[in-house]
Amino acid sequence: MQLRYAFRLYPDASQRAALARAFGCARAVFNDAVRAREEARRARQSFPTAGQLSRKLITEAKQTAARCWLGEVSAVVLQQSLRDAETAYRNFFASLKDTRKVPRTGPPRFKSRKDARQSIRFTANARWNVSDSGRLNLPKIGAVKVKWSRTLPTTPTSVTVIKDAAGRYFASFVIDTDPTADTARMPETDRTIGIDLGLKHFAVLSDGTKIDSPRFLRRAEKKLRKAQQELSRKQKGSKNRAKARLKVARAHAKVADARREFHHQLSTKLISENQGIAVEDLSVAALARTKLAKSVHDAGWASFTSMLEYKAHRYGRTLVKAGRFEPTSQICSTCGVKDGPKPLSVREWTCTACGTVHDRDTNAAINVKTAAGLAVSACGAPVRPGAIPARHEETGSHGFPTDPRAA
After folding, report:
1. Which of 227, 311, 241 is nearest to 269 (CA)?
2. Catalytic residue among 32, 196, 309, 339
3. CA-to-CA distance for 282 and 328, rounded, in angstroms?
4. Residue 361 falls in the annotated catalytic set
């Protein structure tokens, strides 16, 4: 499977200026491609092909006074920007036909230089490389300093340079993993576990283990509030406002990085120790519209379960999602009697049928494991039909919108 390994970049002043030009050129080509398709749609004409767009928006545009600056950056960056526009339209049309199992998406929108995330991509034919001194040589940008936190297991197929809202630069490498090496790294085990996700405890396992919720956002609220108040007092368009905005972005990035690191450590631990994992398929989008929205976002359940999913696929584990309508908090895990709904204030309850005293979360975790088919009856047979392997998902290594971190 493919993974993304991201590393921090430290470009100097001239390299930052070159990257800014590259971001701007890629953005201009993307917007030109969207504009050309929209004009064709309004005129009720067929969409221009990728070859026509490449010739008109890149090759011919470089010869004009209005777009002559496109020649200052690598042509590969511009071609990849066109491919991004094509992919965005393809995903949009696929969502209209219900061929993608994702919520319906809107058509591609114009990019702005004020967007929180800017990126460019170099493929192998761009002739980028890593020097013997460990610097990343990028065409028409130079040798950029890289903070190598680990070694790349194989030769990357492409690299994406990303600038986030906090002004940090990252290099995201795409590599193909070796299934044999992944299997050897985490040998098979006979353990299975059920996970009940919550707010008071981030996760409660079916074996009784309770993992406290770090509440990174709640702990940083005072600092964030002060930084945002300072930002609101600055005059719009001033340099001081730009500095204050950067301060707010860095504070939020620190919270997001801490949460992501916690998710990675916990998900890797669970994957390495258990062959089968059951987790509840929560409707995070619906829960985020309740009065608990801030706490739900702070927990980051969706990010955590996606990490479990791709790591299970990578290391040959089984991940099963129990239905979100399973009454896991209402059923006695000992005798199976449904005892009815209970308010969140009830943390312990006694089964009216068998008299067993249950911890609400531990009982729910056991029921999640049973509902997913990972529990075993007294005779050794599965309680429900066997689990299916987790789906393949592309992974990454930082909190970019499309780049979850590889462990």
Report:
1. 311
2. 196
3. 12
4. yes
Token pair of 87 as six digits: 């992919």
Q: Which of 298, 339, 361, 403 is catalytic?
A: 361
Q: Please indicate whether residue 196 is annotated as part of the active site.
A: yes
Tokens 């890289």 sit at which residue?
Answer: 146
Residues in the chain: 407
Q: Active site residue: 84, 280, 309, 339, which one?
A: 280
Q: What's the rounded Cα separation, in Å, for the pair 348 and 330?
A: 12
Q: Does the annotation mark 132 as catalytic?
A: no
Q: Is the pLDDT of residue 406 over 50?
A: no
CA distances to 233, 376, 385 from 380, rounded to whole Å, are: 66, 6, 13
Burial class of residue 356, CB neighbours in 10 A (0-12, 13-18, 19+): middle
251-278 pLDDT, tens per residue? 999 999 999 999 999 999 999 999 999 9
Residue 220: phi and psi, rounded to 5, are -100, 5
Q: What is the pLDDT of residues 371-397, one digit of tens each?
A: 877 654 333 334 333 443 433 333 344
Question: pTM of this prediction?
Answer: 0.84
